Amino acid sequence: MAHAYTPGLKVTARTTIRKVRRLPIRGEVLVEEGQQVAPDTVVARAHLPGDPETINVAHRLSVDPEDVEEYMTKHVGDQVREDEVIAEYRAFFGLFKYQCKAPCDGTIEHISPVTGQVTIRRPPVPVEVDAYIRGTVKEVLAEEGVVVETTGALIQGIFGVGGEAQGVIDLRADSPDDVLDAAELDASCRGKVVVGGSLVTAAALRKADELGVAGVVCGGIIDRDLVEFLGYDIGVAITGQEDINVTLIITEGFGRIRMADRTFALLKDLEGHFASINGATQIRAGVLRPEVIVPGDFGGADSSGAEVSEGLVPGMPIRIIRQPYFGLLATVVELPPDLKVIETEAKVRILRARLEDGREVIVPRANVEIIEQ
To answer: Which residues pair with 229 in a beta bridge?
Structure first.
């Protein structure tokens, strides 16, 4: 029988996690296979070429382009400092003096006899990649980076913004229904990953930014509050590169949505533990989920080898990702083999699911995602 692709969302207390830490260009790997690393351990380093700065020396000295080389006090390959004289021309027995100074630190890269322009290459920009998580270097990628492996808890969200961050998990909600507002935050949240319930408000995000909170994890957010916090609307590409200080991870969706009980319970168990988080999200090809990673042994079976390629099966926990049951958790009850005509008049494969309140509903299989245990 054919299966529709069903995306998975992992919420588990114990699994094997591997992270590829790769440089944008070739460089130097600083650690060895088998070495233990911390989240802030620099595992690889490279140097990006600095930006070029072009100066029209011929114009500044009032000389012909082909004569520029003659009046240069610095030559190709020489290092220069900002405001250092790189060319000088004296006229009328030294009565008139024209000088050209370097606009920045760098190295003389090119002197053109055709245009009379001189190119200075700014100093290389160091690029470092850290381990992101506490673990073991499982593999070294020559001149590129490493693969870091750890065993611990993993919680994937629906949507997030902001890049990688680390901090101790700090639960600020008594139940998964609670709203995380500015009143729940104080100076003790600085540098921590704050966990709320069903909703985080714009006021709470602004205060979290002011307090220096590392990240916020909540069930939902109002879309206009997210736009207000970012200062612009989010597109459909990849997130995670936003210029913000607080990484935000949404576990359920947009609006006020109760955080899934299992997710909330796991985060409660993880309170006080050091976590690595990342808000990067991609919903198109190469799905990328925002995540909370807490290395350590928190009990339960290792889900690393859990097989989900067989598709949906009765008893499997799922989340419905389309209206009218958007965001609700359910359990697969039955998978009828025949196609069924839905409201849009399309013929699709459907499933029967039991919601948490006991109701049984019928939804297209494409409108759910598996919650991997």
So the answer is: none
The DSSP secondary-structure symbol of 127 reads E
Question: Domains in the chain, please, with CATH?
Answer: 8-12+152-295 (3.50.30.10), 52-121 (2.40.50), 317-372 (2.30.30)
| Model confidence band, residue 366 (pLDDT cutoffs 50, 70, 90) | confident
Instruction: Give yes or no for a contact between 168 and 189, defined as CB atoms under 8 angstroms apart.
Output: no
Whether residue 324 has a cis bond before it, omega within 30° of 0: yes
pLDDT in tens, 4-14: 445 567 889 99
The Cα–Cα gap between 73 and 203 comes to 58
Q: What is the DSSP letter of 138?
A: E
Q: What is the mean pLDDT of residues 52-68?
A: 94
Question: Whole-angstrom Cα distance, residue 187 to residue 93?
Answer: 69
| Torsion angles phi and psi, residue 152, rounded to 5 | 180, -165
pTM given for the model: 0.78
Reported confidence tier of residue 307, pLDDT bands at 50, 70, 90: very low
CA 369 to chain centre: 22
User: What pLDDT does residue 5 have?
Assistant: 45
Angle at 319 between CA 315 and CA 16, to 5 degrees: 80
- Cα–Cα dist 258/369, whole Å: 17
Are the C-beta atoms of residues 160 and 234 closer than 8 Å to each other? no
